[in-house]
Amino acid sequence: MKSGVKYPLARSTRELEAGELVKLCSNESPVGPSPKAVEVLKQEAEKVGEYPDPSSIEPKKAIGEYLGVNPNMICMGNGSDEIMDLACKIFIDPGDKCLIPIPSFSMYEIACRVNLGEPKFIELSDFQWQTKGLLEALGDVKLAFIGRPNNPTGNSIDEDGLRELLETGKPIIVDEAYAEFSDYSVVDWTKSYENLLVLRTFSKIFGLAGLRIGYSIGGPKVIKALEGIRPPFNVNRLAQSAAIAALEDEEFVQEVKNMIITGREYLQEELSKLDFRVLPSDTNFLMVGLENLEADAPKVCDYLDENGILVRDLTNFRGAGPNWIRVTIGKPDQNERLIDALKMFKEG
Fold this sequence. Notes:
single chain; Aspartate Aminotransferase, domain 1; Aspartate Aminotransferase, domain 2; 7-stranded mixed β-sheet; about 40% helix
């Protein structure tokens, strides 16, 4: 049997043993789903003996209204991870190269490799996006992944740079998992660029990570191709119903966004005071550098773990390394607890 690429999990024995850990390691929503979504889940639970709509028609309608696109431009997935896998199936053949800027989301590499593709990594110099290098790297690849905003750096390639990449005609997957925390999106560009596929998820601002539901937006040809190989019943009925309710609760989503932005600004300021390097971010997380500390990421993470706080060690993240951690923005009290713990760590 051949071994696949392992996804780097951020769980500990302490997490499994205790329910009061401050979990700031997986970029989940600290407040969970909308109360309206929870209520719908309770009602829908009585129907789990029935198969879901195999075409996810109602969620597509709701998403179409939310984004201002035709529902026929949408393909639903069991998380956006599934759509990454499906996209690799339609865009690459065994041995073809996929362009992956690093550091970025580990699933890009996994989707490429499980479909027998060859990742072509291009390092973001000092974690900044440089269009020229990306254009040069595109020459011999069949598909490119671009996180916008990018995980774990929290920043993005600018619109002009992305447009230059798209003008090459190469298929580009733009992962907008964190778009709701930023003020930019290229969903509308899918009406003009047939080689653009945009990914979205309900796992972040909508707080539905445990239900596994994501989607893609693209032109007619690519969506038809994805639908042609998508398994039926791939999105369960609980996820479909909760997603619709989550989209309808606009007030809740705005409250979550406001809380995250306030928390992000607080952590940026407090971490900087403690002499951490904090990269600018348009997301619900921060990439934090430890160069000015006499400690590396494993040591910092172990200390926080012992104090009931989980953050992501980026030692094994391609393009990051042992001087970096990633911190998810939590509730105000969770953010304060993190800062207090890091102050104690620095005091020795």
